[in-house]
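User: Hand in any protein.

Assistant:
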Amino acid sequence: MRNHGYFVYILASRRNGTLYCGVTNNLARRVSEHRDGQAEGFTRKYHVTQLVWFERHTDISEAILREKRIKNWNRTWKIALIEAENKEWRDLAEKLGLDPFPTVIPAQAGTRFYHGTSLGQSGSPLSRG
């Protein structure tokens, strides 16, 4: 049996921002997909693009179980997990050979922002992390 690599990872929109936890067998590819907006849904909607934590597993079942457990954690525990190894919330994707991702997301032409959210968007993305 081949020794495969699987990764459980956490992305953030910014320091203490919106969080997303996922699992993949190719971390660099998956982070690139999130950054390029190819991953439809939550990460694209809330601009969750910075890799702030990850761990490697050799068994897919263990990786999926770990991801599910972390997703069920409260926000304080997730932040503690990130800050235990990444106090500065640096984008760890650079270690994978990806270019640094800008921490400021430029506004699109014609988009109006009010207190950090687009008009018409309801709810705080921070409350969903």
